Each structure stands twice: as structure tokens, then as C-alpha cells.
Amino acid sequence: MTVPKLSDIAIRTGLNVSTISRALREAPDISRDTIRYVQMVAQEVGYRYRKLDQLNARSIGVILPEVRSHYYAEIAHAITKEIGKHGYSALLMLSGFDTERIMAAFEEMLKQDIVGVILSGIPGVDEQRVAACTLPTVVLTEANLLASIDTIFVDSNSVMRQALEHLAALGHERIGYVGEYASDIRYRALVELCRQREMPLDPRFVKRGAERFELGGYLRAKELLQEKELPTAIIASYDQVAFGAMRAMQEAGLSIPRDMSVVGVDDTILGDYMPVKLTTVTNPGSHMGVVAVKLLMDSVQKPLDHVVQRVALQSRLIARESTAPAPNAKSDGR
Asked: Which of 70, 72, 125, 153 has the most beta carbons within 10 angstroms of its beta carbon?
């Protein structure tokens, strides 16, 4: 089924897309006759748009894949706290990581009495449909979106590059990866970075699966430890996976980082309180939530003056106790 777009209304009315968008927002420079005509055609073609009575709504839609992980729980907390400062409450929907479910949640959210949407997007999400929505929307992503949408962007390539360069500087050449399929954007980034450095990942040292969080890391590390040869370091798709992997290694009698170094991603608070403090690359969830609300409020309060923005947040490596020079290797100390 094809999702109606502003261009469909343009074809039916003979008006340009900009005029249609302003008519659906009931901009003061558009005549009432034109507004009524455009709204009528929008209803005929099945296009969902922001109605005038939604201007008095006091809720903001938030669509996240889940809130069990520290990362998404942190984002949810930051968003709800920040929108509360503006007198709004959050209407939360959990979509999982499937693109069809994400878009179904987005369509359902547009039916609610809300003033805007904050959406956590993944590769494959229908960018054009999100961009065509006249309801203010901000997308949180690790992918480089092409459509004209307010976007908060954390580059997975930068995250993986910092982890890889840190290990390479410590003299590690046999580097592995443990993770879950839902975080494959980071895995693909790591594969490409290793290819560029002419040090491709050994397939024996890559363990991915459907299980998530600490259990996923534990199971993947158990699989890795069955190999006859082991890497001297691994990168986990995120911290909770790293925690599970570290437990499996310790049960097997390995010493971290003497026998194997471990790097996580996200800098969850628990990493600083583990028996071996976890080296990690930050993924600024709280800051992402704060910036998302700031962009959304600007679009809600000044819809005609709002300029679509793409904000790139920077990650950084935090070296703790779980990484050390590779056995019998020289490092430059970074």
C-alpha cells in the first residue's frame, strides 16, 4: 500500500507543495478557502496531517525500540524530564527494531492528540513518509538520513573508529567482535573500517546472535572461547553485551585485560563500577534526548520560522581498566 504524500495533494489541487504544507498548518497568509480545499483533498487521499485542535494538545509522542537497555532508558528519561520543563507529557510507544513495526507505530502515533513526535529511527525507515508529515518530528539515529528531517545523529563509523584505533595503538592485531543483530549498524561500520586499514576481521572472531543485553554477550563469548585460537581484544556492540562477555571470560579463567582486552559502547553508568572498569566509547543518550526536545519545541512553537537541522553529536573514548597492550606487543600508549 502506497502512503499518501504531499505531492499527491499537489497533483489533485494544482498547488505547490510549500503552499499545501502551509495550508495544512493553517498559516495566516493562506486564505480560508484554500485551507478548507487542501484539507478536503488531504482527507480524500488519506493524508494524515496536524489539525488545528492539536495545537492545544499537551503531549509529545515518543517512539523508541525498547527501554530495557540502559541506553534507551537514558534517552527516555532525558526526553520526559526535558519536555516536562515545557509543560508537556510523553506518550510512549515501543516499536522494536523492525522497520515495519516502527512505521506502524509512527502512523498510529499520528492519530493521537499530540503536538509532535520524537522517533528513534534505523536504516530502512521510510524517510520520505516521515519528512512529509506536517506534525513536527525529530529522528534519533546512527544512520545518515537523506530526507529533510530534524535529525540527531551519532555516527557509528566514528564510534567504531575510536574503539579500533585505541586497540590498534595498544598493539592489538587479532581483534574480535561480539554483538546482537539489532546493533549490526555498528558491526558493518567496524567491518568497513577494518577493510580500510587492511586488517579484515577474522570470521572466527566474530560472534553475533539474536539474544540481547548481558545474556547475548555471555553466549557469544562462550562461542568465541570454543575457538582454537583467540583474539587478544574484542569490541562489543554495546556495554551490556560487554558485561556478559566479561563474565564468560572470567568463568573460563581469562584475566581481563591481561589475556583479552574488552571495549564497549554507550558508557553506561555500571561500566565504572564493574570489578574491571570497562573501557567504552560514549554514545550521548541523555544529551541526544535534550537536543531532540529543543529542536521539537522550536518547530512546535515557531512552525513557520523553524529551520530543519541535522545535529551531529560527538562520541569519545573513555579508557579504563579493561584494555591493555596486547601480549608481546609494543604500543604508543594512546
From this structure: 125
